[in-house]
């Protein structure tokens, strides 16, 4: 029986660890300088916790912005909790790391995109159906493919 090294899953694990490390630093010291994050996550993930009205408004995926106001950032082993402001209404969220689809810090042109084997190769990653930002009403800057690390090429099909 031969075995292979699963580089795709190893890369996903390492990149999610990087996100956890960055968020823990922000929880400990605050956001430095102009850094801010656009985090797109799967609202249907079984461990994601968000208000029903948010899940109804953003079925499938939602992009949240972590910049000027956030509270109660609690970074855990499997995900993070945070309270964000939605139209002057603070809402707590819990986002598992494996629910994250993209993590972008536009201040330094850094971005990660996590693709699953089920993702359609023809799908446009900047399609507005997947980038609902309740904070900016579709004014969210989009990272170009050159700014995003795509791990799909490492995945065994």
Helix content: 10-25%
Strand order, sheet with most strands: 2-1-6-7-8
Mean pLDDT across all residues, rounded?
A: 80
Biggest pleated sheet: 5 strands, mixed
List low-pLDDT spans: 120-157
Strand tally: 8
The assigned structural class equals alpha+beta
- H-E order: HEHEEEEEEE
Total count of helical runs of at least 4 residues: 2
Q: Radius of gyration over alpha carbons?
A: 16 Å
Beta-strand content bin = 25-35%
End-to-end C-alpha gap = 19 Å
Shape: globular
Brief descriptors of the model:
single chain; five-stranded mixed beta sheet; three-stranded antiparallel beta sheet; 18% helix; 28% strand; disordered C terminus
In short:
18% of the residues lie in helices and 28% in strands.
Describe this structure in words.
By secondary structure, the protein is α+β, with helices and mostly antiparallel strands. It has helices spanning 7-29, 52-57; strands at 37-42, 61-66, 71-75, 79-85, 90-96, 100-105, 110-113, 148-150. The longest helix has 23 residues, at 7-29.
Write the topology of this structure.
Blueprint: H1 7-29, E1 37-42, H2 52-57, E2 61-66, E3 71-75, E4 79-85, E5 90-96, E6 100-105, E7 110-113, E8 148-150
Parallel strand pairs: 7-8
Antiparallel strand pairs: 1-2, 1-6, 3-4, 4-5, 6-7
């Amino acid at each position: 029986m031969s075995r292979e090294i699963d580089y795709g899953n190893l890369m996903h694990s390492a990149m999610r660890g990087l996100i956890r490390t960055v968020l823990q630093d922000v929880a400990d010291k605050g956001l430095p300088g102009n850094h801010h994050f656009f985090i797109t996550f799967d609202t249907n993930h079984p461990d994601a916790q968000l208000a029903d009205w948010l899940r109804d408004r953003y079925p499938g995926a939602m992009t949240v912005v972590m910049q000027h106001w956030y509270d109660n950032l609690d970074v855990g082993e499997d995900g993070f909790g945070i309270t964000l402001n939605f139209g002057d209404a603070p809402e707590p969220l819990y986002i598992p790391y494996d629910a994250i689809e993209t993590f972008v810090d536009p201040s330094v042109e850094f971005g990660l995109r996590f693709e699953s084997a089920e993702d359609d190769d023809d799908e446009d990653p900047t399609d507005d159906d997947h980038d609902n930002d309740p904070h900016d009403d579709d004014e969210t800057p989009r990272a170009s493919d050159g700014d995003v690390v795509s791990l799909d090429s490492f995945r065994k099909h």
